[in-house]
Every structure is written in C-alpha cells, then in structure tokens.
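The protein record quoted for completeness.
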Amino acid sequence: MEKEGHIVSKYVERYTIIGEGGKYQNLTKEHDLKTLKQVPRCGFLMVGLGGNNGTTVTTGILANKKKLKWETKRGECSANYYGSFTQCVTTKIGMKIAKKQNDELLLEDVYVPIKELLPMVNPNDLVIGGWDINGLDMYKAALRAKVIEPSLIHQLKEELSQMKPWSAVFNLEYVASNQEDRADNVKKGTNKEVIAQLMEDIKTFREKSKVEKIVVLWTANTEKYYIKNIETMEELEKLIDSNVSLPPSVLYGVAALKSKCIFLNGSPQNTVHTAMIQLAAKEGMQIAGSDFKSGQTKYKTAMGDFLVGSGLRLGSVVSYNHLGNNDGKNLSEPHTFRSKEKSKGSVLDDCLKSNTILYPPGKDKIDHTIVIKYCPFVGDSKRAIDEYTSEIFLEGQNTLVSYNICEDSLLAAPIMIDLCIMAELLSRISIDTKPIGPVLSYLSYFFKAPVTNHPEYVINSLSKQKEILTSFLKACAGYVPDDSTLLSFHY
C-alpha cells in the first residue's frame, strides 16, 4: 500500500531454530517495510572512468539513451541492457487462474520485470563522472579499450570527447609497476590533502549536475591487500593524519562517505574493512563490496550448487584465465594477483559447509587452483577454462570442463549499472523503521567476496543470493514470496 509518499508493507518472516538433539522451534516475526517512492536524480561516479569498464558503462548508457543502432559484420545491432539484473530479469509474483474451453481451471505463473517491482532509477538518467590516472578523454579512451565497435563509438564522438576524467589518486605501491606509464593525470599531496581534493571534486559535481544522490564505485585497478584490517575509525584517522602510505581505494572510500555518497568496491582488495564500515555508519551512509561477480565466478558458484546439490562430492576446481586488457596487465604481478586469488578462492565455501555428508570435519576442503595469465593479443576478450572433478558412486570420478570466451567489460558493465541502481534503491528502504546498512548485504549477488553486516554469515551461492534479493524486493513491494510447495493446488 502507499502512504505519505512511501510504499509500506508488512511481512511475516518464518524460520526454524534447531536446538540440542535436533529439537526445533518454528518461529515467526513480523516486519514493517517502507520504501520511499521518490526516485532522486542520481550521480554515478566511477574511479577508473577511462578504463575498459568505465568507458563501456558510459558508452552503453549513452547508446541506450539515444536508442542507437550500428553496423557490425554480423549485421545491424541495437543498444540494449542484456546482462542486467534490474533491466532484463523477471521474477514470479504469483499465479492467476485461467479458464480452459471445457471450464477446467488452469494455473498460470505471473512474472514482472525486476525494474517494475519498486521505483528505481532509470539507467538512462544516471549522471556520469569520475576519476582516472590517465587523462585521455572518453572518446579516445573508448577507442583505446577496443571493447565496443568503433562504428558505435564514432556516433558518440561529440558527447564522449567532452567528457574527461578528473585527476586521480595514484600509489604505485599498491598496483603493478607496469601501471606507472599510464599515470599522467594524478593528484599530489598528503593523505588529508588528496581526500580534500576528492571531496571538492564531489562537491563541484553535485553543484553543477544538480544530483540529489551520488554513488561512488571503484572500478579501477586491483590493489594488493592492505597489510591488516583497520579495526577502528580512530586508527584509520591516525593513519591518514600521519600520512602513512594507504591504498587509494581507502582514500576514495573516506572521501565518498564523508561527502554523503554511497561507496561500492568493485575490485577484490580489502577496502571495505571494519573502520570503513564504522565510518559509513557514523556518516549515515551505505557501503558494499567486493569484486564484481561477472562471468567465470558466477558460473562457478552455480556449478558448485549443481554438483553438491546432486549428491556428488566436488573434489577439485581448477580455473585458468588469460586476458589482454589492462586488468590482466595489472594482475601479472604477484601482490595484485593475490587479491584476486583470495576473492575467487572463497566462492565455494558455503556450498561445502551446507553438506556434512560429503564434507565431514577433516575432509571439508577441496583442491581449488586459480591461474591468471596476461596475453596482450586477446585484449578484453577473456578466455576462461574451468575443470570440475567430482567423486561419484563407488569411488568413481566425473569431470566437467567449461570454456568461456567473452569481452570481460561487456559482462561487468551491466553489473556496475545494477549496483548503482540497487544501492540507490536500498538506501530508500527501511526495515522496522531502521535504514538498511551500513553494509548493503543484499548486494552480495553482485560480488565475488561479499562483505555483510554479519561477517560470520556470508552467502556465496548464486541461487541463494538471487532468491534472497528477489524475495526481499517482492516483500517490500507487498507480495508474499512464493514458498514453492504448491500445497494448495495439490501439485
């Protein structure tokens, strides 16, 4: 129901508590869900605007906004948002009864697009800006990326040429040494000074573009892991004040949160640490991360569910990648690769914990090997090979191998757009009068290594993540998520 500019719904949560000896108690808890209807004018600031992901998102949004068509060797193409959860996925909201000619009743499922469940930002309306260590304008940067067809980029030359990334924070200590030759658009100063410069960039953008809300998304180079978890805001402020060498992503996070922006970390490094979460809470803002779950890892979590859910004991997963974009170049050094290895390596954890028959204590690990190689010739067209070997009946073995080729940025771009749209929406929702956060745990569906408000309870399974997110959105819209038993219809 609608009330005073909000969509208001009550939802009865049902769950079971298991006690000693298998005794259980079925419990219910009623919640008040409230969503502000008014969709704000939203700014989308990307760190790494001139990279492959940033140029792909920007060009894609402009192409959709202008409803462009372009010629390729496969024929004429039209702009779309394929790959986007918010724009291209539907969900079941219930069933309707239809009559057949002989008057027998027939049930039909009713589906609606995700974007119609609740008021959301239209991606075509996003106001784009951001930072990059390289100063090329977006037209030249998009051509350099070699992701999008030049025939489309040329149609947007006027708009893209006028867009130039703001100077960015650069610290060679946290990326591969081969990135230094790109860094010609860099801020200078101490930690406090560059944070102030970033905040001034955000302030200027807010005033000029007249946006009411801003999402800042890190889509720049993977950084090496910071040496430790920063436990408190006081510790973080001390590190900033003493000008200790800090990852640029941390400085962006601090600047964004203090500027009242939502901050999202799309790379695998540990930017969303304890102190950053505390800062988000203090500022009344939201934060989420880490590392876009786009292609190979998304498939891996689905495959793990399939194999273990089939009663097979997955024994080893070997993942091999080679790619030639700047991400691959940056990951060619061990300290940056380690961040990616950690985020990819944890995606099967909850799948294994779910089955103590197949994975009893002491035998609850699998051999999980991850290899990433840089091959300039293939550009953004990433090659991903996965081998899944399972133990089957009577000590037999079964091996499944997948081979995927895709422009990496064309998979990541729709996810980046979804993250912006969903983060903005979640910031307008309250549960039992309290805003969601400070960590937007419901965004776990989009991340390889999701950070949650409850670190002891992290879900990696793709199907579970999607079910949680869609069920929550349906509950906020006033629908009762289907329990799938079909008991009333004697299926």
